[in-house]
């Protein structure tokens, strides 16, 4: 992780990739990159033989070093935050993929139920059509039987009336 931070601090392209969250693997620190310590710089002590300019130069270097350490610490915090964000997004992705899998399974089951019900509906429609045809034929047959029964009743009545009439015309013998 420290090599990645060194690479980010030393290489603008690496810094851009890191800032955009596009790093796919740890980076290597560039050759000659100074190892930065997290320990604070020792207090500056002025030797009696140093000139005021030398003290100012050393203080400027120390201030730059502190700024670099602050930037490094900030970059390290950003790395931790970015890694936490990555972990959170990966967890969100896993949850979303699980929900997707369940939803696709439910969809497949629903489609199967629809297919089954469509087949049942088609079968029921065929059954209804057959029953409708059987009822029509039964109605036609019942009407024909009713007509035949009325006709037979009429002939029976006519025949009975004719027989009665013939019986009345016969002489009575006593």
UniProtKB/TrEMBL annotation:
Source superkingdom: Bacteria
SUPFAM superfamilies: Tropomyosin (SSF57997)
Gene3D superfamilies cross-referenced by the UniProt entry: Nucleotidyltransferases domain 2 (1.20.120.330)
Annotated segments matching region Disordered: 26-174
Biased composition (Basic and acidic residues): 73-102, 112-167
The protein, known as: Uncharacterized protein
The species this protein was found in: Streptomyces sp. 900105245
